[in-house]
Every structure is written in structure tokens, then in C-alpha cells.
């Protein structure tokens, strides 16, 4: 006679395994489709419109009307905009989470937590509309103070500020969850040994919550790298670069992909999938680097 509990355990394990396989297969399917579609433009079988993979990866100009597709400067623009966005928002997100969980009165912390969750749920197009109506005006006003001409405020700086606004709620929300999960006994032990409340919060709480905090950083950076709609509304789609002028228009990998999807066929359409391959690789490499930084930080605190 088969034990019913054992049978249920086997059935649920099988169900969970099937769900995991479905999720994994979807990732493989999506990446495989993008890879096959994107790599085709570099193969001789593509025909007279074949693109040189070397010129694609090292090019500093993107002109679809001339058949010139260089992605290097776009990668640099994407990395810089995402890096500065994280640089602005990550410290604010972590300190906000620490304040909500450990310092704010209960009613205020609950209210702020709800606000952050609502901000994280806002669609990206709403952020784009906000950026088009508010952020570009701020940037244009700042540029006028220095007597600098802009494209109506659409610029690299506008993209950075927009991404900082967008990724902050995600990182703060995960940081809150991580800080709330820290064992209270660790705090009590630190205070009992003579550490102040501030020292305990910064050296014990944040150190213990670093795994969740870095998970928030990974998701925030991934959103910054992968955001398309909102960024396209303020970037300006520069045709060459890179440029270090914060008031100049820019172009990111995602805005490049989005701008060409109005086509239905041809090299100008297919090359967007090649950009997608570059974006996926960029996100994977960024995640690996962040994981290494997390392990290094962890070793330093041991």
C-alpha cells in the first residue's frame, strides 16, 4: 500500500520540476530566437545586405539610411547612463530602506513603504511622460544657467535622472525586505557590546542584509539597462558617439531596438535583434561583476 503523504510529495515535486523546466525553457527559447535572428545578418547567406560583425561591434556611428550599423558607442552610452543612474539612486534607496525599517515611526514607515511599492508598480510609459514634461524642463533650465544649448532638454542627463527615478523603488523595496529579515539577536548583541544604534545599523544590519540589497542592485541595474519606452522619449537617438557632454542627446541599446521595430523586414529590422544579443550579454556580464563585488564585500566583513 502506497503512503498517501509520500505520493503527494512525489506529485508535488514532479509539478514543481515541470514548472521549473517550463520557466527555463522559455528563457532558452527567447534567447535562442533572438540569437538566431540577430546572428543571421552577419552570415554570408544573408545576401548583399550582410553586415560585418567587426564593424558592428567596433563602429561609432549608427545610420540606417546609409546602411551603417555600429554598436560600440551605443554600448558605452548605455553603460554610462546606467552606471550614473545606479550611482545616484542606490545609496538613496538603501538609506531610505534603513530609515523606514529601523528609524522611522511605525506609521511613517508603513506609509513610506506603501508609497515605494506604488512607485515600483508604475508603468514605464508613465515615467516617460513625467520625464518628457518635467525632467527635460529641469535639464533645460540647468543648461541655460551655463548658457548651453540643448535639444529641448532631451539629453544624456535626462536619461540618467529618469533611470534613477525608475530603479530607486525597486532597489528600496528589496532592501526593505532584506533589512526586515535581519535577526534581532544580532542587533541586541551589538548593542550589548557597547555599539551605538547608528554603528549597529550601518555595520551589523546592512552587512547582514547585503545579499538582499545586492539583489535589489542587480534588478535595478537590469531595469536600467533594459528600459526602452521611457528612455526613448528623452534620449534623442544620437547617430554617432560616444559623447561626454551631459546636455547632448544620446542613444541606448534599448532605444535603438525600439526605434527600428516599425519595420517588418530587411536588415534595418533584423539588426535590432543583433543589438538584443549585445544587450543580453551586457546584462549577464554586469550581474556576474556585481556578484563578485558582493562576495568581496562579504569577505571584507568576515
Keywords:
single chain, 12 helices, 302 residues, 2 strands, mainly alpha, two-stranded antiparallel ribbon
Please describe what this structure looks like:
This protein has 302 residues and is an all-alpha fold. 74% of the residues lie in helices and 1% in strands. The protein has twelve helices and two strands. The chain has a two-stranded antiparallel sheet. It starts with a helix and ends with a helix.
Relative strand content: under 5%
Helix content: over 70%
Question: Could you tell me the number of beta strands?
Answer: 2
Major beta sheet summary: 2 strands, antiparallel
Average pLDDT number: 85
Q: Give the N-terminus to C-terminus distance in angstroms.
A: 52 Å
Structural class: mainly alpha
Order of helices and strands: HHEEHHHHHHHHHH
Give the secondary structure arrangement, pairings included.
Blueprint: H1 4-39, H2 53-58, E1 62-63, E2 68-69, H3 72-103, H4 106-121, H5 124-145, H6 156-180, H7 184-192, H8 197-208, H9 210-226, H10 229-235, H11 253-259, H12 267-300
Antiparallel strand pairs: 1-2
Amino acid at each position: 500500500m502506497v503512503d498517501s503523504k509520500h505520493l503527494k510529495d512525489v506529485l508535488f515535486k514532479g509539478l514543481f520540476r515541470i514548472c521549473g523546466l517550463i520557466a527555463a525553457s522559455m528563457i532558452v527559447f527567447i534567447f535562442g530566437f533572438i540569437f538566431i535572428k540577430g546572428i543571421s545578418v552577419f552570415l554570408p547567406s544573408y545576401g548583399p545586405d550582410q553586415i560585418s560583425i567587426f564593424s558592428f561591434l567596433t563602429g561609432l556611428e549608427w545610420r540606417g539610411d546609409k546602411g551603417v550599423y555600429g554598436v560600440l558607442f551605443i554600448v558605452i552610452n548605455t553603460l554610462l547612463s546606467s552606471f550614473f543612474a545606479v550611482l545616484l539612486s542606490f545609496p538613496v534607496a538603501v538609506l531610505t530602506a534603513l530609515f523606514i525599517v529601523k528609524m522611522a515611526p511605525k506609521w511613517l514607515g508603513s506609509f513610506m513603504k506603501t508609497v515605494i511599492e506604488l512607485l515600483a508598480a508604475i508603468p514605464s510609459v508613465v515615467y516617460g511622460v513625467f520625464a518628457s514634461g518635467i525632467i527635460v524642463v529641469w535639464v533645460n533650465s540647468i543648461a541655460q544657467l551655463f548658457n548651453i544649448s540643448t535639444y529641448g532638454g532631451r539629453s544624456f542627463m535626462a536619461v540618467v535622472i529618469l533611470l534613477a527615478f525608475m530603479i530607486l523603488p525597486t532597489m528600496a523595496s528589496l532592501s526593505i525586505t532584506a533589512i526586515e529579515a535581519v535577526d534581532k539577536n544580532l542587533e541586541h548583541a551589538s548593542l550589548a557590546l557597547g555599539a551605538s544604534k547608528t554603528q549597529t545599523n550601518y555595520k551589523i544590519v546592512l552587512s547582514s542584509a547585503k545579499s538582499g540589497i545586492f539583489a535589489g542592485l542587480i534588478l535595478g541595474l537590469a531595469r536600467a539597462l533594459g528600459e526602452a519606452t521611457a528612455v526613448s522619449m528623452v534620449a534623442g537617438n544620437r547617430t554617432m558617439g560616444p559623447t561626454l557632454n551631459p546636455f547632448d542627446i544620446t542613444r541606448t541599446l534599448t532605444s535603438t531596438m525600439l526605434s527600428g521595430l516599425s519595420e517588418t523586414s530587411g536588415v534595418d529590422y533584423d539588426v535590432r535583434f543583433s543589438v538584443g544579443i549585445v544587450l543580453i550579454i551586457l546584462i549577464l556580464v554586469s550581474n556576474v561583476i556585481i556578484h563578485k563585488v558582493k562576495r568581496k564585500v562579504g569577505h571584507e566583513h568576515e
